[in-house]
Each structure stands twice: as structure tokens, then as C-alpha cells.
Amino acid sequence: MSLAAKNSIIIILILIMTITPFVIKPNAEFGGADGAAGDIIKKINPEYQSWFSHIWEPPSGEIESLLFALQAAIGAGFLGYYIGSKRTKAKYQTEMEKDNR
């Protein structure tokens, strides 16, 4: 199987996994775990007082989403760099071994 075919299959699978929740539950709210945890804590103990406060809170939800996406992009960049450097190192090692034979 060619690389293009493998990539196409992966992209199709990612699209299916992304779209499926919206098809199954079209009007559902897809909120984060932080909000759900806070709601459950309030149900269990309505008088609970948080022992931690934010150092800085973003001025809007859009800024918060931007920072989250930036964090994900930086993480993906580091991960991609690491994988690429390991693959390149392995490739050069196999080429060196072939040349030494």
C-alpha cells in the first residue's frame, strides 16, 4: 500500500471520528471536563469553597480557546520534531551500516 493511500485512509478515519458525535447527538453540548467536574462538585457539596484561585483569567472565551489551541500546536510541534529527528537518525544509521558492509 502506498504512502498516499495510507494517509488517505488515516484522514478519512479522522473525519469519521470527528463527524460521528455530531451526527449521533446533533443538539448536544460538547463541554470540557472542567465544567462538568465543577457541576458535580456543586451537586455533592453545595457549600464547597475552592481553595485555589486563578492567577490570570483570559478576558474572553475566544482568547481562552486561542491559548488552548496554541498550547496544542506547540505540543504537536515538539512531538513532530522528536519523531522526525528519531526517524532521520535511524535512517542515517541504517545507511551507514549499509555503507560499512
Automatic annotation (TrEMBL):
Q: Which InterPro entries match?
A: CbiN
Instruction: Supply the source organism for this entry.
Output: Selenihalanaerobacter shriftii
Which named protein is this? Cobalt transport protein CbiN
Q: Give compartment(s).
A: Cell membrane
**Its job:** Part of the energy-coupling factor (ECF) transporter complex CbiMNOQ involved in cobalt import.
> How does the record describe its quaternary structure?
Forms an energy-coupling factor (ECF) transporter complex composed of an ATP-binding protein (A component, CbiO), a transmembrane protein (T component, CbiQ) and 2 possible substrate-capture proteins (S components, CbiM and CbiN) of unknown stoichimetry.
What's the superkingdom here?
Answer: Bacteria
Its membrane topology, per UniProt?
Answer: Multi-pass membrane protein
Predominant location? membrane
Write out the similarity annotation: Belongs to the CbiN family.
- The entry's keywords: Cell membrane, Cobalamin biosynthesis, Cobalt, Cobalt transport, Ion transport, Membrane, Transmembrane, Transmembrane helix, Transport
Q: Which GO terms describe its biological process?
A: cobalamin biosynthetic process
Asked if the keyword Lyase belongs to this entry, the reply reads no
The record's listing under HAMAP family reads:
CbiN
Coiled-coil residue windows? none
For this record, an example GO cellular component is: plasma membrane
Pfam families tied to this protein:
CbiN
Kindly tell me the pathway this chain contributes to. Answer: Cofactor biosynthesis; adenosylcobalamin biosynthesis
Q: Quote one Gene Ontology molecular function term.
A: cobalt ion transmembrane transporter activity
Segments traversing the membrane: 7-24, 66-84
